[in-house]
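Q: Give me a backbone?
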Amino acid sequence: MKARSLREPCSLAFIAVLTAPFAGAGSLRSEIIASDSASDEAYADGWQGLNGVASAETGTDNGGFGFLPWDFEADEGYWEPGHSPYDTPHFIETQPNSFNDLGAPAFALTNGNVPLFGYTTLATRPFAQPLRPGDEISVDIDNPVMQKLALFDSTGLVVTLRTAASVERFGLFTTEDFNNDEWTITDSRGHETPTGLSDLEGSSGFRFAFRLTGEETYRLTVTPRGGSPSIFEGMLAMPGTGEITRIQFLTFGNGSGDGRMMPTGEREFYFNNLRIESIAGEGPLQRPSDCNQDGSVDISDAICLLARLFQGGALPCEETLSEPGNVGLLDANGDAQVDLSDAVRLLDFLFRGSAPPVLGLECQPIEGCPDNSLRCQ
C-alpha cells in the first residue's frame, strides 16, 4: 500500500470507511514455496521413505515440490508385522472409508494391535529450506478417536515442528485422559495449552496452519471441518535452538484397523495436502502508529509521538515528520499530516475505545519506512 502524499487530503470519515475493511489485505501476496499431496504420482506404488520400518516401504519418495524425501526414522518407531491388518505402518489410503473424512488418497499411519508395548509410528518431512518469518505451513488432518488397547495402556497423536537436529520448537498433540482428550499446544509455556478441539471433533477432520510471525513467535490457526477457526499465538519452545526445518507426524498405542485384524481404517491417523506459503508484503512491513518500533501499538507509541512533536529526536522512517514514510506510519486520523491530533486519536483508541488508526492495526507495507517484519507480530 502506497503511503498517502501530502497533496492528497480527504475527509476522515471517507478514509475510515474506505480503509477499515481492507487494511493490510490488498498489499499482501502469497507465494507457494512447497506443496505435496497423497495423489502425487510419486505415491502411485505406495508410500516409501528413508529408514523404512519394513522393506516394502523403504525408499526415497519425494512428491510435490519444495520438500526433501520422507523419513520414517526406523530407530524412533516400533512396529512389527503380524500384529496389524496392514502390511506396513505407513501407507496411502486409496479407498474411501467411513473413518477418513479427508477422502482418498491420503497419507496414513497405523500401529500394531498389542497392548502395553508402546507401538509407535512416525513420518518426518524435511523442508528444502527453513521456515522464515512470514512463512506458513498447513496440512489437513483427520485423527482417529483414541482407543486404548488395554486398561493401563496409553495412546496419543502428535504433530511437531523441528530443527535439523530434531529439537522440537512447536507441538500439537492429544493424549487420552489428558486435557479432556483435547488437542494441546507445546511451546515456550510448556505442554498444557488446550485448543478446545477434542479428538472426537478432530475425527471429522481439521486444518492445521502454523505461521512463523517472527524469529521466535508464531500464530496457529486450527479450523475444524465445517467449523470456525481458532487462533493461538505464542513463542516457540527452546528459544535460540535453531530454525524449523521439518514437520513430523506420530501416533502411538492406538492400535490398527478395528483393533483386531480387519483393515477398517478406524484407528489410523490420516493427513494430506501439505503446503508452505510465504506471506509477504510488497514493501517494508510496519504496524501503523508504531512510533517506537517495538512491533506493538500502546501508550508508549503515543508518548513517542508527543516527544517527537515537541522535543524532536530520531523518527522511525525518514528525517522529517512531513515525509511520506512518517506520514504513512504515524497519521492516525487520516488527515495526511502528522500533528497533535494523531496522538489524541491514538490515546482515544487506547483508553476510550474509540476508532483505531485509519489504516488499522495489522502489519502492512509502508513505503519510506524500514522493514519491521521481525517485530510485527
The radius of gyration is 25 Å. The CA atoms of residues 139 and 261 lie 30 Å apart. Residues 29-280 form a domain with the Jelly Rolls fold (CATH 2.60.120.200). The first strand starts at residue 28 and ends at 36.
